[in-house]
Amino acid sequence: MTDSHATTLDRLPEIGDVALCMGVFDGVHRGHLVLVQATARVARERRLRAVALVFDPHPDEVVRPGSVVPRLAPLHENLRRLSEAGIDEPVGVRFDEALRALAATEFLEALAPAIQVRALVMSPESAFGRNRSGTPDAMEALGRIAGFHVERVETLLTDSDEPISSGRIRRALADDSLDEANRLLGHPAYLEGMLNPTDEGSLRLDYHAALPAAATYRARTRGATPVEVELRIRSNGRIDLVGAPPGSDRIALDVLSRA
Question: Which domain, by its residues, includes 122?
Answer without folding.
Answer: 6-152
